[in-house]
Amino acid sequence: MAVKVADRRSREITLSIDFSLDGGTSWRAATGLFGKSAGQTVSSSPEGTEHAFTWSAHRDLGTGLHEGVLVRVTPSQPRGKPAVGEPIEELITYDVPSTGDLHADLLADLSPDGTLDGFVLADVRGEDDHAAGHLPGAVFVSFADIQERGREALPWPLDTRIVFYCYGGG
Q1: Of 10, 54, 71, 125, which residue has the fewest beta carbons closer than 10 angstroms?
Q2: pLDDT at residue 26 is higher than 90
């Protein structure tokens, strides 16, 4: 989910991301990558600064087709100061694949013979998600560790082909 944050004074802005399954009568905070809440403080600029939030829809919605999901992004200033803009709402249909569907689709795309020869399959969804079920042959790699340490976080030689997968597309 991409959001462009503009503020003429380039203040830090807190974005709250919520979803509704009943047309906006009730709202729940969207669970972010690794189970963090969607309320996050981001930078802004007069021309707008792009930010991305990866929604862990599988945790909030479960698998299957979900029509009429309303997603709301609400900006505010940090530490409870008054809002700096109107909420943005978008109606979406969200198709959350089952783990079995993910297995078949990914393996069909990556390895015609169904094996993992020639590459390492790295699961960056989060340790709990990996423990609950992962693609055959996948190895857990901490996404936060990759963000912090870069290539040093990966235990494989530099010439290794690595395919990363997660629940989001961001």
Answers
A1: 10
A2: yes
